[in-house]
Sequence to fold (202 residues):
Amino acid sequence: MIVITGFEPFGKYKINPAWELASRIDGLQIQKHQIRAIKMPVSFKKIIKMVPEIILKYKPTIFLGLGLAAGRIGLTIERVAINIMDSREPDNDGYQPIDEAIISDAPAAYFSNMPIKKIVKKLRLEGIPIAVSNSAGTHACNTLMFVALHTIKKKGIDAYAGFIHLPLLPEQDIKAKTPTMSLDIMIKGIKQALDVAIKDRL
Ligand code: PCA
Fold:
């Protein structure tokens, strides 16, 4: 089983490409591994509670989070999640943590255990713009990635966990001020990334 999470809309964005994408690949199979898409609230507290529940329930081979990072050029695969919540604006529950640990007795950071460089190489061969990012930020996306990596480590679950940030969709930037990518290209990229990750585990 592959679990893909996609965040709901937040802030000024009426749609979130992360959920648009995740919902469209729900149920697909990647080399006999079925994709299960789960919509995530942009809520620090709910993420911290839900992510361990999801991982323990589905025991996925791969847990991949998707989120929007408006302004990023192309797909960005995250290398590291840090144990901090520091938000510029309140989350969808009105909560705005500043300089707070996600989990107080957890390490400062976790590296993604996905084969991020292999994924970058393959997607570039397919003509899909992607780069490694060395910061998932300090908002909901970083929190989700951190809790996922902490959960698999603590519970000894043999899974890959990682996160990919997506740029805006073209229709979200009709004044042409920010880099965008079509949903079709994003979908192709995420499917390829999963394919690389599954093959890497064989
Ligand atoms: N992006 C935000 C939160 C939800 C989302 O899709 C982030 O990068 O943390």
Notes: Residues 2-201 form a domain with the Aminopeptidase fold (CATH 3.40.630.20). The first helix runs from residue 17 to 25. DSSP finds five helices and nine strands in the chain. The mean pLDDT is 98.
